[in-house]
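User: I'm designing a mutation panel for Rust resistance kinase Lr10-like and want to avoid disrupting the core. Could you give me a predicted structure to guide residue selection? Please restate the sequence first so the numbering is unambiguous.

Assistant: Good idea. Sequence first, for numbering, then the predicted structure tokens:
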Amino acid sequence: MRKCSSNKHIFFWRKPNLAQQNVEAFLKVHGPLSTRRYSYLDVKKMTNSFTNKIGQGGYGSVYKGKLQNGCPLAVKVLNQSKGNGEEFINEVATISRTSHVNIVALLGFCVEGSKRALIYEFMCNGSLEKFIFKENHYQKENHQLEWGTLYLISLGIARGLEYLHRGYNTRILHFDIKPHNILLDKDFSPKISDFGLAKVCTREESIISMLEARGTIGYIAPEVFCRSFGGVSYKSDVYSYGMMVLEMVGGRKNVNVGADHTSEIYFPHWIYKRLELDDELGLKGIRNLEDNAKVRKMVTTGLWCIQTDPSNRPTMSKVIEMLEGSVESLQVPPKPFLSSPSRSPTDFSTSLVHAWGHGSNVANT
């Protein structure tokens, strides 16, 4: 950036930081991109100078905006201090490769000095987490989704992930599948968003290397943070998907550190017992046999997805087959190894905080 001293009119150049260098190098190698590039002034106009903030994430703030033709937008303005530009590169490199009804559309981007923004289609119902966690203030009676809607959402997310994983030449691994990153349109059709932690690999790469764990606590596959469980692969996304589906069923975080009894702390363990005994699931809102079948398919599929050994987890193609098939054809999976802790809720929550931090992304590199 050029600076001018008002007294002596001496001009000099400030060396771009590493993030700027990385982003500009990426754009040079991959440009011109099919996604439109906007100026920062354009972004300010779109968002009316950032007056309507609709979200906050680890990588920046999200504002509602609109194009000149009135088309609504969601504009993510990335934090200047976060990372080395990888989150921007990941978003543009991955989403610009995609075109699927269950993947959020990237309509444009802005890179101007240290300022970076990503421009998406606007999803009027926001994120899935608003509608599934009972402690959420959005979760009033009239916001609770019916089981049929939740089932279709789980199926749509599965189709989006299957699309990412089955690319002809390259495969996209998301690494941060969770309710917060699933957006819902006016018809509650889901779209996978936030590719800041994603990695692109070739189809031949069955196992990929990572220097650090990445993802969000509660959804990270065991092998991502401890290689003794196996290699990191697209099956790591399958695990995250399974944990999320079980949260959709339970209407709460899988790990409930505030539960009165240790058997209630870990929801997958609780629901597995009922499935194993072919018992009533004990969930609210199941009105008929059709609802019951859909919920049982979601539970069974979710439990298969969170198997500790990655090789025991289904592919996303198989997940779709399980969800669309008959409930009678599904086998009860082995009990997930990582189950309810034997310690008290207080001890368990304390250990979580010390080991991982408090419910946030573990890595952004």
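For picking mutation sites, this is relevant: The chain is about 35% helix and 15% strand. The first helix runs from residue 18 to 30.
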